[in-house]
Amino acid sequence: MPTAIYPGTFDPVTNGHLDIIQRATSIFDTVVVAVAEDSGKDTLFSLEERLEILREVTSSLKGVYVESFSGLLIKYVKKKGADAIVRGLRAVSDFEYEMQMAMMNKKMAEDIETVFFFTSTEYSFLSSSVVKQVASLGGCVKGLVPSYVEKKLKEKYNFLK
Ligand code: COA
Predict the structure, then answer these.
(1) Is 128 a catalytic residue?
(2) 87 is catalytic
(3) Any catalytic annotation for residue 41?
(4) Is 134 within a domain?
């Protein structure tokens, strides 16, 4: 029963992330989407909000669970008894950073593999930051994020105004 951990900040989750989650479920029985409590980024959505949004948009996906973690990712992966870490690659520019992370994690836990999925081309330009920037300036993010996220972004930016 292979289990994978898909870690990230998810501020907010996009259709690009969902694409990776869905494809990971075709290989792993269980995919735990692990939201970093502190990834070093200033987040728009609180940890609780990011968890709630992820749970809502993945509720129909079998074998997908959403949790938070703090501290070293590899310690959390070990504690969960998971077999692999899942990451998405959008472009060559992601490669160096991802390779460094994968190798460092491998150094700390040799039995845990990092498995990469190429992000579908239609989402290869996407990031949570670009979505937030467009939404904050009143641009349309339809098709880039689930409609629930679109609604949450609107609420957040109206509230902040
Ligand atoms: N679709 C859309 N966007 C995607 C994407 C996809 N398929 N794949 C990546 N992205 C985006 C993300 O939204 C994020 O955008 P942002 O920078 O605007 O927030 C960016 O690409 C990826 O950011 P990155 O910093 O690579 O990852 P992350 O913030 O999602 O998560 C952690 C990083 C949490 C996994 C990492 O910091 C970590 O493991 N922290 C724990 C501490 C630790 O163990 N450190 C040692 C590691 S060796």
Answers:
(1) yes
(2) no
(3) yes
(4) no
How does pLDDT run across 22-62, given as a tens digit for each residue?
Answer: 999 999 999 999 999 988 999 999 999 999 999 999 999 99
Model confidence pTM above 0.85: yes
Q: Which atom of ligand 1 is nearest to the CA of 100?
A: 48
Residue 50 CB–ligand 1 contact under 6 Å: no
Total of domains in the chain: 1
In ligand 1, which atom is closest to the CA atom of 101?
A: 48
Tokens of 67: 């949790």
Under 8 Å between Cβ of 58 and 66: yes
Alpha-carbon gap, residue 25 to 49, rounded angstroms = 24
CATH value at residue 41: 3.40.50.620
- Three-state SS letters, the chain: CCEEEEEECCCCCCHHHHHHHHHHCCCCCEEEEEEECCCCCCCCCCHHHHHHHHHHHCCCCCCEEEEEECCCHHHHHHHHCCCEEEEEECCHHHHHHHHHHHHHHHHHCCCCEEEEEECCHHHCCCCHHHHHHHHHCCCCCECCECHHHHHHHHHHHHHHC
